[in-house]
Predict the structure.
Amino acid sequence: MEKNNYLDMELLRFTTAGSVDDGKSTLIGRLLYDSKAIFEDQLEQVKGTSERKGLEHVDLSLLTDGLKDEREQGITIDVAYRYFATPKRKFIIADTPGHIQYTRNMVTGASTANVALILVDARKGVIEQTYRHSYIASLLQIPHIIVCVNKMDLVDYSEEEYLKVVKQYESFASKLETKDVRFIPISALHGDNVVNRSEKMDWYNGSTLMHNLEPSILEAMKTIPMQDSPYKRLFGHIVMLITILGDMQVGLMVEFTASEMRCWFNLAALHPK
């Protein structure tokens, strides 16, 4: 990859979302591994940890679960950012928590994303966290949602089970502000339809996840990161701040419209350009 071409490549930010154990960290690990974006010493460390845990496979989720508590508990608490590149595009991934008590961290990670990957366990289908994270992605005006129906290996790569999840999600997707919603059946553990096409799902005629992320059809918009707020909820609603562009000053009242709702925010701080 030539240096000039690398510098000119477009940057895409995307976030993973979904419930606990839907395989978000494993999916990111698989993307990094199959894209050859992992250093050899990192891979050896992950292999060693996997062996000590008594696993028969390499636990690729360990590539993103960096906090000690996360490694010990096997969950994602903080937002883990990872950078990698392919010959076609540069990426920044935000791996966000699935637990409901860490929803605020999920909002923080998603606030800069151009694409949201919503993971759904093929065995469980669409659940409460699926709805919650999808609506948050919509409120944040993320223009593209890719629903990754994960763990297809645990339902024998069944097209019928995949279509059940698609139907469930489509039943409420019309309520979202995001109009570009795509579906991909995957197995993050085994790599099916992540970077490489699956030989076990010949019924699926669509593109792999990586093929959906690389083209310029997924626009890369400029955003300003939302900082962590001490106010989690107000009258049962999550309080969040999205990108505000233009000439601003501290203390200015801002009118914000999204999803046919009107709110007013007291601007507390500005990000430097």
User: Anything to note?
Assistant: The two ends are 30 Å apart (CA to CA).
